[in-house]
Amino acid sequence: MNVNRTVFDVQLTAMAELAKFDITGNEDHLEEAHYLAHKSGLDGDEKTSLLNEPRLSDWYEEGFNDRVTDHAIGMMESNNRASEITVNAKPGQSYVGKIIDAGSRFNVDQAVIVNGLETHVRHERRELSSVLAGLINIGKFVKISYPVARMGIVDAINSPDLADC
Q1: In Å, how far are 86, 87, 112 from 115, measured between CA atoms?
Q2: Which domain holds residue 19?
């Protein structure tokens, strides 16, 4: 099984599984469609038009709401971590580091090293896009580049050198 499935692959498979259920009545297909749509929301993937079917859309939203709930619980447990230095992402810049907070509907925070100090960079979720599914998640090491304003491109980083970020 390919570990690096794209958002398109996951959501297309969910749509196909739901169509198989509608045709055959086999509940295994319904369960797989539900799982994939929910997981796409839980992973924070961008919702594509492939999930416009009402059942898939509802399952995606349930997953995304579970993500937001998990985020709220995590923030309460960590006392908001508001004491960290946080800066907003800027056009023309690239940021390499670990995603430390991705549960908010509006922001994604990333820990990067600037001048030898850990700094938290805040990205607006609506500005981020990635081809790979589940990439914008806590603990993922990514490079987020802003070639132009309001357009953050997220790429996976597979370097062991970044494990200490």
Answers
A1: 14, 14, 10
A2: 7-77
